[in-house]
Amino acid sequence: MINLKRDTNISIAFFLLAAMLGVFLRFLYVFDISVNYKYIVHAHSHIALLGWVYVAIITIFYRLYLDQCGAEKYYRIIFWCTQVTLVGMLLSFPFQGYALFSIIFSTLFLFTSYWYVWFFIKNIPSSYKTTKSYKCIKTALWYMVVSSVGPWALGAIMNTLGAGSVWYKLAIYFYLHFQYNGWMILALFGAMFYVLEKQNLKISNKNFNRFFIGINISIVLTFFLSILWTEPSGFYYFLAGIGCLFQVLAFILFIKIMLDSGLIANKILSKLQLQIIQTVVVLMTVKIVLQLLSSIPYFANLATTILDFTIGYLHWTFLGVISVGLFFFLEYFSLIKIPKKGYYIYMLGFVLTELFIFYKGMIVWLDLSFFLEYFLLLSIASVIIFIGILYCFLFNIKWCK
Questions:
Q1: pLDDT at 6
Q2: 61, 137 in Cβ contact below 8 A?
Q3: Does residue 187 lie within any of the structural domains?
Q4: How far apart are CA 284 and CA 278, in angstroms?
Q5: Distance in angstroms (rounded) separating the CA atoms of residues 237 and 147
Q6: What average pLDDT score do residues 141-164 get?
Q7: How big is the chain by its Cα radius of gyration, in Å?
Q8: Which residue has the higher pLDDT, 221 or 160?
Q9: How many domains does the chain have?
Q10: 339 within some domain
Q11: Rounded mean pLDDT of the chain?
Q12: Rounded to the nearest 10 degrees, what angle do helices 323-332 and 271-293 cross at?
C-alpha cells in the first residue's frame, strides 16, 4: 500500500527547501556572503519546479487514477528514482551550477519523467480513457515531454554558440513556458474536471471541446511572448496576441463550465476550499491580463528589459496560480490538511513579495530611487512565505501520524 500522504509531505519538504533557498537569495542583497548567486538560483528553481510541483502533481495523479491499478511496486521504483535525482540536484547545483554532477542528475530526472509518462499512460484504467479530465492530463504530460526539448538543446547551444547566445535564452524560455503554461496549468485544469466528473456534475461537451481546443492553441501561440525580447517582425507579435486572446476565451469557457456544473451552488466544497479556488481564479485572471499586455510591443519591451517584471510574473504564476492550485487539490483529495493560519501566512508573504518585486520594477521603469530598507523588507516578506510553508509542513507531519 502506497502512503500518498507521506509522498505529499515529501513534496512539501522540497517546497520548504526551495523557500529556504529563496530566503537565502534575498538575504544576499542584505548581508555580504561569498557564494555564487547563480548556483543558488539554479538549485532554487529546480527544487521548486521538480521537487515541489512535479512530485505533488504525480502524487495527485496516482490518487486519482492509479490507486487500484495493481502496479504499486513499479510506481514506487519510479518515485524513489525521482527522489534520488532531486537530492542529487539539491547537493550539486548550489556548489557547481551547471556542471558534471548537476547535469547528470538533471538528465537522469528527464529520463525518469519519461519513464513516468510511459508508466502512467500504460496503466491508466480503461474506464478513464474517454473522460474529459484524462484528455487534459494526458495532453499536459505530453507538454512536459515537449518542454524537455529546451534542456536537451542547452548542451548543444553552449558547446557551439555559448551561454551568451540568443538561442540559449530561448531554450530556457521554451522549457519554462511549456512547463508552466502547458504541463502544470493544464494538469490543474484536468484535476478540476476530474472533480466535476466524480461529483457527476454536468459538463457541456460543446463548451469543453471549445475550451480544450482554445487552451491548446493558446499554449502553443503564447510561447511567442517569450521571443518578443528579440524584437522580431510584427508577425510574431500577431501570433502572440492571438494566443493571448484564445487564452482569454478558453478561461471564460472554463469559468462558464464551472458555474453551469453547480459545483459552487451545491456547496460541495468547504469554506476554505471555496476560498482557495476563488483565489486561484483571481490569480489566473491577473496572469492572463499580464500576458495580454505583454503582447503589445511597448509592454513586451518592459517585460523583457526589466528583470523584476519577469521575476514578478514567474513568481505570480508559480507561487500563486500553480502552488495555491495545488493546495486546493491536495486538500480536496485528502492528501494534506491545509491549516488556515499556515495558508494565510503563506498568502501574506506571497502578496508582500509580489508588491515589493513589482514596486522595484516600477521604480526602474520610471527611473526613480527606492527606499534603503527595500531589500531587508523583501527578505522579511520571503521569510513569511517560508514560515507559512513550514507551518503547513509541520501541521501535516502531525496530521499524518
A1: 93
A2: yes
A3: no
A4: 10
A5: 22
A6: 87
A7: 21
A8: 221
A9: 1
A10: no
A11: 92
A12: 150
